[in-house]
Amino acid sequence: MKDQLKMSFRRVRKGPIYLNSVRNLILRQQAAIKILELLNGSKILINIDETWINETDFRRMKWRPPGDTNVQSAVQLSPRITLIAALDTLGNAYLTLTQANSNNKTMEIYFHQLAAKLDRERPNWRADTVVVTDNAPYHISASTQKVLQDLRIPILFFGPHSYNIAVAELFFAFVKSTHLNPTFMPTGKK
After folding, report:
1. Which of 36-45, 71-80, 103-112 is predicted with the least confidence, judged by mean pLDDT?
2. What is the mean pLDDT of residues 83-94?
3. Which pLDDT does position 12 carry in this prediction?
4. Could you give the 3-state DSSP secondary structure of residue 155?
5. Positive or negative CA dihedral for 27, 28, 29, 31?
6. Residue 121 falls within a domain, yes or no?
7. Which residues have C-beta within 8 Å of that of residue 5, sequence separation ≥ 6?
């Protein structure tokens, strides 16, 4: 072979044992079965999650051939930005950017705005749609659960640590796979 491209790998650190405890494995399996049932029943699923964007250049997180540098200049964002994404099985995306940390209040406001948007688009969306999200404390808090109940939002929670079935995680990986501000436009509150 003329020029073989060699890639190097690093050992991934071990996660805590509780990630794959019998309880968590069963909860993930039950959630996956429920999701498959909903999809087979022609339900529209909306996966909601959030991530932080605290810098603009994520290119250093890619695999590189040996000898190539992985060093990229990272431009820190201050204050950091929170991206909340809702992606449905029809291909629609409902996004928001805030300069606030994710907490009960930000999620409650997001759910209010999402429900209002869906009401305008498809007034009967609650009959054929289920929101699916993880078990973050601000998703399962009593105040958020009250908002979800008041808005009559059908909700299903993933099993613990179910990153591989969360479509929003793939979306975030795509967004963070490049340089988000290649022209170095100034950012700030103004």
Report:
1. 71-80
2. 96
3. 63
4. strand
5. positive
6. yes
7. 65
Domain assignment present for residue 4? The answer is no
* Residue from 159, 90, 158, 95 nearest 125 by CA: 90
Tens of pLDDT, residue by residue over 4-16, are 666 666 666 666 7
Band of residue 30 on the pLDDT scale cut at 50, 70, 90: very high
Domain of 59, in residue numbers: 28-64+74-175
CB atoms under 10 Å from CB of 158, counted, come to 22
What are residue 86's DSSP bridge partners? Answer: 48, 94
**Whether the predicted pLDDT of 38 surpasses 90:** yes
Angle, CA of 67, 70 and 71, to the nearest 5°: 120
pTM > 0.90: yes or no: no
Q: Is the dihedral of CA 93, 97, 103, 106 positive or negative?
A: negative
Examine residue 143 and state whether it is found in any structural domain, yes or no.
yes
The encoded tokens of residue 23 equal 């309880």
The residues, any chain, with a CB within 8 Å of residue 29's CB and separated by 6 or more, are 159
CA distance 41 to 101: 36
Any domain includes 162: yes
Give me the pLDDT at residue 173, please. 84
98 vs 81: CA distance, rounded Å = 6
133 or 79, greater pLDDT:
133
Which CATH number goes with the domain that contains 40?
3.30.420.10
